[in-house]
Design goal:
Shape: globular
Radius of gyration: 22 Å
GO molecular function, one term: GTPase activator activity
Helix content: 25-40%
Number of strands: 19
Largest sheet: 7 strands, mixed
Number of helices: 12
Organism: Ciona intestinalis
CATH architecture of the largest domain: 3-Layer(bba) Sandwich
CATH superfamily of the largest domain: FAD/NAD(P)-binding domain
CATH topology of the largest domain: FAD/NAD(P)-binding domain
CATH class of the largest domain: Alpha Beta
Family: Belongs to the Rab GDI family.
Function: Regulates the GDP/GTP exchange reaction of most RAB proteins by inhibiting the dissociation of GDP from them, and the subsequent binding of GTP.
Strand content: 15-25%
Subcellular location: Cytoplasm; Golgi apparatus, trans-Golgi network
Structural class: alpha/beta
């Protein structure tokens, strides 16, 4: 391999495939390699059904019901309808390879009960999530928030962008339960740190949630037919269209700096690149473990109770409700999304590990799903790079966190993109057209 590539990308996870597509489209010469025989790496969808049992180290049953009807996400997440990943899909026209369905409902747990988060004014007035007077205070908060513009002080109503979020809640008189679901189920914060941080970040997060609901009406979330593994493959196609080269089943033996360039050795051959991008598994000496996530993949023969028999939904259990430091996420899809056999549901419960008994930490989410026909659990280490790549020219992505949406993943993608190119990704070029449903 004598060619010099602008970029060699290691791993075909969602982060790496999106960067491959963006960089190829911008004119860079890209070589993309993966030790696996399939696209998606950790963000793949497993099919047929025996592959799911194999992945989790369990023997497959002697007979499987329609095994090829199953496409089970290893790391399940939803897309915000007006979020960064959808905008990237639109910008790159990868939407032509995918079909989406709107997730039917977004829920939050309060005092052990599941409540639908109001998606319009009618639901806000009828919900039992809040009392009558609290609904009025919540409505006033949403009206103020919907008009808030950081650049226009007239919209601030005596709340500058650097005001702590806790002071904003006090101004509107919102109670603890409302603060919980606003902060964790709408703004999608994972811990309580947002309470003392400047309010602008939380305001923008809630505005994103509201704008995403306006797209399709039921919830702010979308999910692709046939599972999330379709998304990395879509960006791989995009990269190929713009000249990117893909090599699967290529074990990586060494990544090293050679005379100001990066050498990547696979099966005794070394290819040279100006920079290398990859997931943490390819750079064991350049990453640090920062936490762990536990995920349980559950097969159900019924919809989740108290969700109006929804074929898909998300439930967030705020950490305050269960005496934890991190939220618990429950996401559910079904045969309506071509990810499991007819009349089955796939539910996934995930959270950041806090104790030496991770499975027990999932119990508040698992009890919402019972009876569970089959459950698979896995604890994953979460890594992040120890340097930003500016000197080493090795740009390493972060592991996928416990959240059930892609916003944090997209933040990492856009951050790596800026470090590589020296400029922000220009979202102003994204056309306003909807993903097909």
């Amino acid at each position: 391999m004598d060619e010099l590539y602008d970029v060699v990308i290691l791993g075909t996870g969602l982060t790496e495939c999106i960067l491959s597509g963006l960089l190829s489209k911008s004119g860079k010469k890209v070589l993309h390699m993966d030790r696996n025989q399939y696209y998606g790496a950790e963000s793949t969808s497993l099919t047929p059904l025996p592959e799911v049992y194999k992945y989790f180290g369990l023997p497959a049953p002697n007979s499987c019901e329609n095994p090829r009807d199953w496409n089970v996400d290893v790391i399940p997440k939803f897309l915000m309808a007006d979020g960064k990943l959808v905008k990237l899909l639109i910008h790159t026209d990868v939407t032509r390879y995918l079909e989406f369905k709107s997730v039917e409902g977004s829920y939050v747990e309060k005092s052990g009960k599941v409540y639908k988060i109001p998606s319009n004014e009618r639901e806000a007035l009828s919900t039992s999530l809040m009392g009558m007077f609290e609904k009025r205070r919540f409505r006033n908060f949403l009206v103020w928030l919907s008009e808030y513009n950081e650049a226009d002080p007239k919209t601030h109503k005596d709340v500058p962008p650097k005001t702590p979020m806790s002071d904003v809640f006090k101004k509107f008189g919102l109670d603890k339960n409302t603060i919980d679901f606003v902060g964790h189920a709408m703004a999608l914060h994972r811990t309580e740190e947002f309470m003392t941080a400047p309010c602008m970040d939380t305001i923008q997060r809630i505005q994103l949630y509201i704008e995403s609901i306006k797209r399709y009406g039921n919830s702010p979330y979308l999910y692709p037919l046939y599972g999330l593994g379709e998304i990395p493959q879509g960006f791989a196609r995009l990269s190929a269209i713009y000249g990117g080269t893909y090599m699967l089943n290529k074990p990586i033996e060494k990544v090293e700096q050679i005379d100001g360039q990066i050498g990547v050795t696979s099966e005794g051959e070394t290819v040279m690149a100006k920079i290398v991008v990859g997931d943490p598994s390819y750079f064991p000496t350049k990453v640090q473990k920062v936490s762990q996530v536990i995920r349980a993949v559950c097969f159900l023969k019924h919809p989740i109770t108290n969700t109006s028999d929804a074929k898909s939904c998300q439930i967030i259990i705020p950490q305050n409700q269960v005496g934890r430091k991190h939220d618990i996420y429950v996401s559910c899809v079904s045969s309506a999304h071509n990810v499991c056999a007819k009349n089955w549901h796939l539910a996934i419960v995930s959270t950041t590990v806090e104790t030496d008994n991770p499975e027990q930490e999932l119990e508040p989410g698992l009890k919402l799903l019972k009876p569970i026909a089959q459950m698979f659990t896995k604890v994953s280490d979460i890594y992040q790079p120890t340097d930003d790549g500016s000197e080493s020219k090795m740009f390493i992505s972060k592991s996928y966190d416990a959240t059930s949406h892609f916003e944090t993943t997209c933040d990492d993608i856009l951050d790596i993109y800026k470090r590589i190119t020296g400029e922000d990704f220009d979202f102003s070029k994204v056309e306003k057209k909807e993903p097909e449903q």
